[in-house]
Amino acid sequence: MGETKYVPSGGLAFTEEQDMKKLSDYAKEGWILAGFAPLGYKLIKGTPQNLIYCVDYHKDVDEEYFSLFEAAGWAHICSQGNEIHIFSAPAGTTPIYSDKETLMEKYEREKRQMGKWAVPFLIATLVFFFLSGMLPKILGIVSMVLGLICFIVLIFSGLPYLAYLVKLNKLRKQ
User: Fold this and answer.
1) How far apart are CA 73 and CA 96, in angstroms?
2) Which of 4, 14, 89, 174 is most buried per CB count within 10 Å?
3) Does the pLDDT at position 1 exceed 60?
4) Cβ partners under 8 Å of residue 26, min gap 6
5) Which pLDDT value is given to residue 97?
6) Is 143 a domain residue?
7) Final residue in a domain of this structure, among 90, 110, 133
8) Which domain holds residue 8?
């Protein structure tokens, strides 16, 4: 068996907790998170460790941001696009988000971020599909293609938006 393993992610908006637990389970087997990989994570073979993982979403972070986590016992492992950051800590370390309010703030930030893309692309998708039936044939085809492109972008922003909305609603009911 090689020294590197790639494991899929269920999509952080949908399976954040399950992904972090899966990474912890792998760490106990000696497969330690090294970074993000396309559609998942890259693990490297190492010494089995009892680690917990947590993801945080912040844009354009600085050294102070990472220092705060380090002071709380969390080590920065990797970042994706200078916006998604994964940290690890020994099992038993106080969670990064230890109360309902800060967890809600985290998901509210992400919901807003996804909404910035989802809402305009929803509107564009509807407009292009509507226009495709009203325009002359060639323009209608162009409008349909543009509508499909907008729909694809909408899927990748709209579904996470809905996932964060569901998470927020569950937290509000607790």
Assistant:
1) 9
2) 89
3) no
4) 5, 7, 32, 33, 43
5) 86
6) yes
7) 90
8) 4-90
